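Input.
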Amino acid sequence: MTAVRVLFFAMTLALVVPGMARATTASEAVANVERNARAAHSDAVLLRQDGKKLLELKPAAGQERVHLMSATKSVLAFAIVLLLDDEKLASIDEPVSSLYPEWKQGRKKDITVRMLLDHTSGLQNVANAGQELEGAPDLVKLALAAELSGEPGAVFSYNNKATNLLPGIVQHLAGQPVDVYLASRLFEPLGITQYEWMKDDAGTPLGMAGLSLSAPDLAAIGQMLLDRGVTPLGKRVLSEQSVALLMAESARSADVGLLWWRIPASERYQANERMSGVLAQHGVSAPVQQALLATQGRVFDSKAALIAFLAESLGPDWPQQYGSEVTGRGLKLGDLFDIQRGPTVAYAANGYLGQYLVIVPDKRLVAVRLIHQRDSHTAPVDDYASFTADVLKVASTLR
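Output.
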């Protein structure tokens, strides 16, 4: 199960937003995506506006399906809102303890389904999923047994372990595994017939990762969202209320909805005055402290620029260092930087190694980038961290 090494830093830092520089023409902006996608060794890229193909790079024959890594979470979210539509779940604010009575004691009784979906459950979690979750025989039981590291509902903290409980909830309420439920309620209406979903030893599909789809099939999911829950053939598979619920801003972070990322038109990062003390207080290693403190006095107009600076400072293993020393110690970018955020203009499903589904509703644009896991993968180049930024540049040229 090495493919499920899903790191929090790879998810949060993959949400790259540009300084909205405008390309001269749409064709130039699309050509920029193609050039950067090829340089990043992408296996599949697909850009469509209202169903019209703007760009497509196809993988080799037999390599069409790609592991979505943590973008699986965004597909998993459909299962929960479909339970609402099917009246199998009364509300996402239902306490998880109504399904798992062992949580009726102590503070876990306050954890709701919503908190699993917007990363505010407070469950103990290790930033690098491979350290604790990879190879675990029963990920639902592991999540149920987790201690609390924070107050339920209080703080946004990306959590792989918590999302692994969601397939258990679907099994309880739908009476079938989440892959079977989504096959009938989502995949088949969208014409998706070829997929794979990794399972733990207990036979439960993973929640944090594990789903493999082709670029056209992932794009079909994005198009359905643009069409407010309706397939190209006019069949409604998801209520408009559920679509809105998935994308609505979380109470604890403007960056997220329900396992979907909310992409702003612009962002600005500047080291705050508390950074030095916060890093020391959390025991961050000297090399990582030095790299982060070197950002003081600088202004970064995107996450991409900030990532590039940290990658250059820390070297090739910067993701591992950042994951263990920053994310792994419970720190977020907002603890270290003053962040200015523009209005939300797009939504995304993102995954480790640079798996992306981006939709831009106002421009009716759907964009997908996928890459297979290989030993030759070089971060951050092959992660194509600027994909979302490049897509928004395309969007800015479209009518």
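The two ends are 44 Å apart (CA to CA).
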